[in-house]
Amino acid sequence: MFQKKQKLFFLANPNNPTGTYLTSSELLELRKKLRKNILLVVDDAYAEYMKNNDYKSGLKLFKNKQNVFILRTFSKIYGLSSLRVGWGYGSKKIIKALNVIKPPFNVNEVAQKAAIESLKDTKFITRSVKHNIIYAKKLKNFLNQYGINSNNISANFLLLNFEKCKFKAKYFYEKLKMKGIILRSTENGYNIKNMLRLTIGSKTDNLKFMRAVKGIFN
Ligand SMILES: Cc1ncc(COP(=O)(O)O)c(C=O)c1O
């Protein structure tokens, strides 16, 4: 599972763009099976969206663990991606080492202030999580009718599989693009063929997307 010289094991949980994730017991098992001196880095970017019973964030599972480092971001549920702000949680030793290579002022003050304020807006977070689950279900069922299958709902996106659809992912992508709707192609970069990633949007965006899909198929 790991190589002799390996020092780090990086895991995005849930993963992008597949939306798949290791359950809490699987993640604990992974840590047990890794050599002790391999640092396990868990990217919790989508943790706030996760309401699946068998999931626990890296932060919840690995408090005070010397050989685990957790990554968090304000780019997802907090909606602050353009401010480029996130944080990490790990042992003092690792934080100290990171500070040696960290450029000064790497997160500007406005971004820091906005991030702190966004943490207080719990109403927005609760509303966003609910919105995400409702529309992920709606979109998943809606697309199923057209033979477009997707992963089980986890984060704020669906990985659409066109294997059983009468159209290829590429055709669908181009048709939507002409209507001003851009999905993420998984072919370039991820090398995942005939699939597309759909991010759950606002109510207006989701309805626009559904209307556009109806238009493509009818
Ligand atoms: C798994 C994962 N981690 C992190 C990020 C991005 O985080 P940031 O905007 O803080 O660089 C993304 C964004 O797509 C992601 O999918």
Describe this structure in words.
The protein has 218 residues and is of the alpha/beta class. The chain folds into two domains: 8-120, Type I PLP-dependent aspartate aminotransferase-like (Major domain) (Aspartate Aminotransferase, domain 2); 123-217, Aspartate Aminotransferase, domain 1. It contains seven helices and eight strands, in the order βαβαββαααββαββα. The model has no long low-confidence stretch (mean pLDDT 97). Pyridoxal-5'-phosphate binds at residues 12, 16, 43, 45, 73, 75, 81, 86.
The CATH architecture of the largest domain can be given as 3-Layer(aba) Sandwich
Main β sheet profile: 4 strands, mixed
- Regarding quaternary structure, what we see is single chain
Bound molecules: pyridoxal-5'-phosphate
Can you give the mean pLDDT? Answer: 97
The gross shape turns out to be globular
Kindly report the name of the CATH homologous superfamily of the largest domain. Type I PLP-dependent aspartate aminotransferase-like (Major domain)
- How many beta-strand elements? 8
Count of alpha and pi helical runs? 7
Pattern of helices and strands: EHEHEEHHHEEHEEH
Radius of gyration: 19 Å
Amino-to-carboxy terminus distance: 48 Å
- The percentage helix is 25-40%
Per CATH, the class of the largest domain reads Alpha Beta
